[in-house]
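Hi R.,

Quick one: here's the Nicotinamide-nucleotide adenylyltransferase sequence you asked about.
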Amino acid sequence: MTMRGLLVGRMQPFHRGHLQVIKSILEEVDELIICIGSAQLSHSIRDPFTAGERVMMLTKALSENGIPASRYYIIPVQDIECNALWVGHIKMLTPPFDRVYSGNPLVQRLFSEDGYEVTAPPLFYRDRYSGTEVRRRMLDDGDWRSLLPESVVEVIDEINGVERIKHLAKKEVSELGGIS
Ligand SMILES: Nc1ncnc2c1ncn2[C@@H]1O[C@H](COP(=O)(O)OP(=O)(O)OP(=O)(O)O)[C@@H](O)[C@H]1O
Ligand SMILES: NC(=O)c1ccc[n+]([C@@H]2O[C@H](COP(=O)(O)O)[C@@H](O)[C@H]2O)c1
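And here's the predicted structure, written out as tokens:
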């Protein structure tokens, strides 16, 4: 029987920690469903990239790292208002799965209450490899590139991602020239 796992994350953006965790989960399961969470969000400092841009990042990074497309599914999932219905919402959009991998307590709780086996995967170099740290370095002209697979850097350059996040972080300038 095919053993399938599920990993959910906003992937804003997809970084080397995500890549490592995907490689290690694929040693345990035959196929991995990767849900891109909060798919409706983009163009904010916490969630700068669209679901489509995040699909590009994952597709290119997994291909660059020799992970065959037959081993995974990439599925964008929008948030819904009711946490109690969210597992059903995920199940509606994904192939059937046996196990869930997440470090997020709410995600862990909702799936375990629905009867799923939930594992918190180990975090790799969490001080560096987190979306929050990547976005912070983008805003501060720091070295964000070394935190990402090369193909993700290319996608961010193609879409002018750093310019976008810096523009979004600017304070609005009023008609009188003052900063509000
Ligand atoms: N450094 C890491 N090593 C291993 N797994 C990670 C790492 N960072 C994130 N993950 C895994 O990816 C899942 C989804 O992560 P998410 O997209 O929220 O990334 P994040 O880096 O925590 O983002 P943010 O800082 O923007 O909240 C987490 O629940 C965790 O299991
Ligand atoms: N009610 C809901 O829509 C609901 C509930 C739990 C998690 N989620 C989503 O799952 C994802 C979890 O990923 P993170 O671990 O990256 O926070 C997020 O996109 C979060 O918004 C959504």
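The two ends are 60 Å apart (CA to CA).

Cheers,
M.
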